[in-house]
Amino acid sequence: MRVPDVLYHFYEKSLARGLTTGKLPHHVGVLVDGNRRWAKLAGAPTAHGHQAGADKIVEFIGWCEELGIKVVTLYMLSTDNLNRSSAELEQLMGIIGNTVDRLGESKRVRIQPVGAKEFLPPALSEKLDRLAQETKDCDGVHVNVAIGYGGRREIVDAVREYMLEASEAGKTLEQAAELMDADAISRHLYTKGQPDPDLLIRTSGEQRLSGFLTWQSAYSEFYFCEALWPDFRRVDFLRALRDYADRQRRFGF
């Protein structure tokens, strides 16, 4: 092993030893950004970047499993991304489908799709539903795959479901409006029943959330990393966790 590799390995081990289990986030959200730029810098087709990003997702879930992180939400495809060229989207949908298959094959990961599945190709939507059913009893990492996801769309869908539920219960519009509160909306989000994310990580150096978990991230801690997603290393993840552990969370106070 080369000297730089030895030093890197030592540094990674040191970071891992310094983490306190009680201070690790329960739920981590990740904006897996930078696949296209990675491919461009490598002089490779865009699909190669998406595939490298998919391989990193499988590796990343393994890190989370090792560290005992219970819930992960991966921002894989936004509603805005659906405006890309049909050729790129066709390749990307295939890569996403293969990636969720790989996650499901472990028999340890629980997969839950979050997003507007009506925007997805029927084959991918059906696959996500099938994997959600097949993995619902897995007790490993709970992985939310945000595909065809938009934060504003999620809130609109939650309000719509709440209003329809109120109507079915025989409530008037005025009664439904009077009873509506933050808890009522939360109960109808794509991630209903789950804890809000403690930590959101975005790769590629961009410092915005782009509609990711708009409602749920009200009190999340944010960590922005310069590495493009395919280049994101375990040491980068450990640094993010160390940074999170060092913060004093105030929850709005």
TrEMBL record:
Keywords: Magnesium, Metal-binding, Transferase. The active site is at 33, 81 (proton acceptor). The keyword DNA-binding does not apply. Binds 2 magnesium ions per subunit. It is an enzyme of class 2 (transferase). Catalyzes the condensation of isopentenyl diphosphate (IPP) with allylic pyrophosphates generating different type of terpenoids. This is Isoprenyl transferase. It comes from Neomicrococcus lactis. The lineage of its organism: Bacteria, Bacillati, Actinomycetota, Actinomycetes, Micrococcales.
